[in-house]
Amino acid sequence: MFALEKPPGQQKPGGSGGFPNMASVGDFNALSASIPATRVELSVSCRNLLDRDTFSKSDPICVLYTQAIGNKEWREFGRTEVIDNTLNPDFVRKFIMDYFFEERENLRFDFYDVDSKSPNLSKHDFLGQMFCTLGEIVGSQGSRLEKPIVGIPGKKCGTVIVTAEELGCCRDSVLMQFCANKLDKKDFFGKSDPFLVFHRSNEDGSFTICHKTEVVKNTLNPVWQAFKISVRALCNGDYDRTIKVEVYDWDRDGSHDFIGEFTTSYRELSRGQSQFNVYEVINPKKKGKKKKYINSGTVTLLSFLIETEVSFLDYIKGGTQINFTVAIDFTASNGNPSQPTSLHYMNPYQLNAYGMALKAVGEIIQDYDSDKMFPALGFGARLPPDGRVSHEFALNGNPQNPYCHGIDGVMEAYYRSLKSVQLYGPTNFAPVINHVARYAASVKDGSQYFVLLIITDGVISDMAQTKESIVNASKLPMSIIIVGVGPAEFDAMEELDGDVVRISSRGKFAERDIVQFVPFRDYIDRSGNHVLSMARLAKDVLAEIPDQFLSYMRVRGIKPSPAPPPYTPPIHVLQTQI
């Protein structure tokens, strides 16, 4: 899958490997490394496209558009090649995109029958289009989404198959160990104190330091400790790029004496312990001066072990399901729903604060939930007919089956129950947390992960019980997202978040951080442009979930299941490429 040929214009600098033609790893820097993005490669195939040519079949091309978060404008992202004479194209040119779990990335695939060399799409015949999100593709079984092509009324336009594959070249780390023999003696009184310095070569022939070993004192035959380094740091994913290793004698004053150096590459090192991985340490100055100079010692690779870092996507591809539960605060502190000042105000013209938060976060997460059925609960209200107070009631009025279809179903149930229940109190979180925890406790094998979204005005009555519930839930496959709406002080919610101080109850600390709190008011801009603020809200709310998810899997030693085998398109005759 990873082509190791050079992109045009990228030639090898003197003796070192160039960048492989993938994931533009050349743009990598320490800053972008901290952004939780994964690069995915999208492959597009179509079946049974419309035939627009009279004497032959269509000559299709696929054009991908992405939608800007703020103004919702569609922008062209890229085009595949044109394939002549086929209604069942498997496009060779891929789309490589950054995938952020916490952003809803809307995509549009347009298909045209190309009739001339013109790049202007209006000069070609439109064959239809397909809309989806990047999360929908990634979240489909085997990360393979098949959808009908639409857009030409009254015509069957065929289907499109989009497959996502994570670019994995730089997700490997290696565990290596080295020793040396008969190094030059550099210290007057004792032997040398040697250490190694690793550098990776750059495009311009310069070198960048990427690792230093520890110092082994007073020996000419050191054995260094094994160390772990990412392949990205070592060679930026290019297995043939030069790696230079320098050997120094450590001096207290920092003027370390140069013993010598050697070069290798990831590909050579990956052969492991063998005669190929014994390197002569050469000091070029000495070599120039002394005719009988052989070397300044040797360095030997003792072991080389590749470790692949697993990602959130690996689990999703392997079939792990994210189960999303919503819990809404129906306590009296929110204000009377018939008054405009209420956070639950039933405004016929726009969403209230609860509705906005629910829609923003829910739309992002629903792409990962295969059946799109969400249990939706309320707490802190008096229920008809007898007015009993409940801290976990089904919004749809059916306690045996509290599931709503999609976020729209949840919204509908929320507005319906506002009309029938009476806002009351107290504000108890523990019952809804324990409700989800009961489900999470029954599936601990990594096949399911539970996310509870609590939307609240932040006034809490059962702080001690809630803390205990969270500490207990931290051992389970679940995360809690709290969105605070309204103007209240959210100190109690910040405490539950546990980012600053890990939450504890009765002297027991939470095994891991599972709560993320976000104050909704930070995301409403003064102009009332809710779209932008909702995207930012969702981003911040969901940003911690992949790491919380991975921390659970890691602690339990749960590996992702293998993804289903990739789809292999049938071979079509008459598929010439131009």
What would your notes on this structure say?
By secondary structure, this protein is α+β, with helices and mostly antiparallel strands. It folds into three domains: 38-166, Immunoglobulin-like (Sandwich), CATH 2.60.40; 172-308, Sandwich (Immunoglobulin-like); 320-556, von Willebrand factor, type A domain (Rossmann fold, 3-Layer(aba) Sandwich). 20% of the residues lie in helices and 31% in strands. The chain contains 13 helices and 30 strands. Helix 7 (353-365) packs across helix 12 and helix 9 (430-442) runs parallel beside helix 10. The chain starts with 29 loop residues before the first helix and ends with a strand. Residues 1-36 have low confidence and may be disordered. Probable calcium-dependent phospholipid-binding protein that may play a role in calcium-mediated intracellular processes. Keywords: Calcium, Metal-binding, Phosphoprotein, Repeat. InterPro entries: C2_dom (IPR000008), C2_domain_sf (IPR035892), C2B_Copine (IPR037768), Copine (IPR045052), Copine_C (IPR010734), VWF_A (IPR002035), vWFA_dom_sf (IPR036465).
| End-to-end C-alpha gap | 21 Å
Beta strands, count: 30
Uncertain stretches: 1-36
- How is the biggest beta sheet arranged? 7 strands, mixed
Q: How much helicity do the residues have?
A: 10-25%
CA-atom Rg in angstroms: 30 Å
Mean pLDDT value: 84
Q: Any idea how many domains?
A: 3
